[in-house]
Specification:
Blueprint: H1 2-25, H2 36-54, H3 56-61, H4 66-87, H5 90-106, H6 116-138, H7 142-162, H8 171-187, H9 200-203, H10 209-214, E1 222-231, E2 237-238, E3 241-242, H11 243-251, H12 264-267, H13 291-296, E4 306-311, H14 315-328, E5 333-341, H15 350-355, H16 389-392, E6 398-399, E7 411-412, E8 425-430, E9 450-453, H17 474-480, H18 482-489, H19 499-522, H20 528-531, H21 537-556, H22 562-565, E10 568-570, H23 582-595
Parallel strand pairs: 1-4, 1-5, 5-8, 8-9
Antiparallel strand pairs: 2-3, 6-7, 9-10
Helix pairs in contact: 1-2, 1-4, 2-4, 4-5, 4-6, 5-6, 6-7, 7-8, 11-17, 17-18, 17-21, 19-23
GO molecular function: transcription corepressor activity
InterPro entries: SCAI
Protein name: Protein SCAI
Length: about 600
Amino acid sequence: MGEDVVARTFRALVESADQKFARVRDVPTYGRGPNHYFQKVFKAYTRLWQYQQENRSKLVEAGLQRWEIGEIASRIGQLYFGQYMRTSEARFLLESYIFYEAILNRGYFQGSKGSMKDLVVRFKELRFYARFLLVSLLLNRLEMVRVLVERFRALVDDCKVTFRETKNNFREWTLVVQEIARFMKVETAFMNVRPLRYCNLFDSYPSSVPYVARFHAKKMLKFRDALLASYHRNEVKFAELTLDTYRMLQCLEWEPSGSFYQKRPVELNEKLNENGALNDHSGTSGLIDINLVVDMTDPTLPPNPRKAILYRPSVTHLIAVIATICEELPPDSVMLIYLSASGKSGRGNISQMENSGGTRKSSKVKVVSEISQELDSSMPEAPVNNKGHSSDCHENFLCLCPKGNGGSNNNLYPGDIIPFTRRPLFLIIDSDNSHAFKDLHGAERGETAALLLSPLKPAFKGPFGFDTTQNGSQFTFFLTAPLQAFYELVGLSFSDTDSDAYNDADKILSTALSEWEVILCTSTSLDLVWAQVLSDPFLRRLILRFIFCRCVLSLFCPPEDSEQYLPLCLPQLPSSVSPNSDAVQSAVLQLANHLGVAECFSFNG
């Protein structure tokens, strides 16, 4: 009788925790709403863990399976990851990683093989691998990602063989394996070189720090919130995280200091004991085992700006999210909006493909389309209707949908953003129709927006068949990893130069960025729109990298093509950091000479 009571109590606790979990899972990941849902669900799971720990032997006798423990631990990992997506606090991402790694090391989902009952467990295990992969990617745990990919692929292959009668159920998991393999092929080339996140070791320059510290404008804004959205046909992605948003997300976060990446195996036993029970570490926040992560992060770092990440949103949903964030935006704050999408009704750069047979006046450079030459490895696309193509190519909108001409709810026009210019906005538009958003300048409803607009076409030196869709957006790459983007532009790979040469190139670029930082901080002609955000390290770094990108592309592409192949900023930055200025152009020349690619550029004189 006692065992029956224990089992029933345990099942009731599981059901109660699962109900609270469902409520939290459905809470939007954007906005600054109350956090009590998160606290309630963690209290439920804390009680559940304590109960199963105290009554482990009776529960095992009553039929408790190891995968059930793993399922609960996996839910806790999901909760931490969901809270990271809502708050952008690194500690939640680290907590999620620790739980997932514990599940992996203890093999909670490994059990009997071949039974139909085991099929349910296998699906749980597959979902666990997919979630752990996403967390590991965001933490740049490359070695763990490789391990997970191999185990994930092996599990999918084993399931297709073991459960032949339900083989079709694993087709989508095969696509997920292909997605992560494609993602890793693109992103691992430079993943171990330096972090995309803001790191004081790399991104704070001693010679310019005093100038930044003394800089003061009539109005100073704080960067608190960002919205990131991306859709390109056949773009590289994993789950609902595209390569472009993956790069931009990390670019807008602090790199936690210390060697916490190496502390995982040592600290793991403090999270789950040998029986799989959760140890009691309430920590400062009242949540589960928060002390460990507090020890692994730098408390002196400011909080990360909150980020709402939208995947293939309808325009009405996108506008609703922007409205919510703007409404809740604290006073004297600025919101960043990053949009990466095609302006050609979801067709990609078709006009580029049609014109690609021609030749350029310059024999040094080939500029090709962003059209994907592979089938999308994740989702089938609807066929494109080619009627009216010539007029569609000149429509002033971005298409956020996966279908051909999906109607007005999939087309974002520059005018859709105007109502939100009552609050300060920092807009990054990465599109083959980005220049349409120049119309925003001068049409604002109260606050002049800061605009960084991508080139209409990508440029690079390399084989004609190179497809930039398979490598993410070139403009976003320059803003998030400028030296790696420079390498890609001129056809170099990290293997083409030794680590010392790369490090020296990085020093050249860092010195240049530091000099340009001083120029901006001391300029008397810097527009207030830029001046009011210059004190923010994330936005300042984006501005400096834009200056580098603009100069590189202006020297790389012939003047007659400048309108299509150069990025724009509005309002204009000072002429002292223009592509023609000695301070900027000399740095690009030094970098090109160091890497032996000066012949790719047309320098003055």
